[in-house]
Amino acid sequence: xxxxxxxxxxxxxxxxxxxxxDNAVTIQETVEKAIGKLLRIPAPVIYGCSRTxxxxxxxxxxxxxxxxxxxxxxxxxxxxxxxLPDDIAVLSCEEVDDDFHARYCAKxxxxxxxxxxxxxxxxxxxxLAFHYPYKLDIEAxxxxxxxxxxxxxxxxxxxxxxxxxxxxxxxxIYDITVTESDGVCEVRISGNGFLYNMVRIVTGTLLYISExxxxxxxxxxxxxxxxxxxxxxxxxxxxxxxxKVFY
Length: 247
Known about the structure:
Elements: E1 2-10, H1 27-39, E2 46-48, E3 57-67, H2 73-83, E4 88-96, E5 108-116, E6 130-131, H3 138-146, E7 150-153, H4 160-165, E8 170-181, E9 184-191, H5 198-211, H6 216-225, E10 240-246
Parallel strand pairs: 3-10, 5-6
Antiparallel strand pairs: 1-3, 1-4, 2-3, 5-9, 5-10, 7-8, 8-9
Helix pairs in contact: 1-2, 3-5
C-alpha cells in the first residue's frame, strides 16, 4: 500500500466546501470519484489538510490517499487532470511515509482574502473577491493587524457554533499583512491553525477598523474577553483562499 501526498488547487464557487456531504457536491467527493475512475477501483477516501467552507477557494490544498497501485506520480497528476472538472487541478504528487497525514502533520497554513476595492464591480472577480467600493485605510488596517500577531485566545473572532465544538480557541498568528495593488486589497494571514470563520471575521474586523466602526481597543478587548460583538463582520466566502500549507 502506497501513501500519496497530493497538492491541488480549486475554485470553490460551485462546491459546498471540501468535506464530503450526503446532499451536496464537494471537492472531496469529486476528487475521490476521479481517483476511483483513474485507478479503476471503488472511490478511495482522501484525507484533507483542512475543511474549507462553501464557496472558499484553494491555491494550494494538500490531501493524502492510500492506494494499492503502481501508477507513477507523474501519471497520477496527468491522469487526474484529464478526469477532473476545469475548476479543480492537481499540482503535484509524491509518495511519502505511511504515517504522513495531510491534516495532522501540517505545521501551519496561510490564507489570503481578496477585496475588490475598485468603484465598480469587476465581472472577472465575481465569486473571487469581495467588492468594497469605498476608500480603505490600509495603514490603519496594518496597525490593527499587528495586535493580532502572536498567541491569543481568538474566541471573539470565531462563529459561535464553531467555538462550542473547540477544545480551545487559542491559536498563534505568525503574520498578517494588508496590501493594495491596482484596486485589489489583499489580506494575508498565516498561523498554526484557524477557528471556524476566523479569517473572514479578522478581515471583516480590519474593514471595520478602516471605517472607524471599530478601534484598536475593541480588538484588544475582543482578545481579552472573547466577545464576538467586539470584532467585525463575517465577510463572504468568495474572497477567501487557502494559499499555502506548511509541513
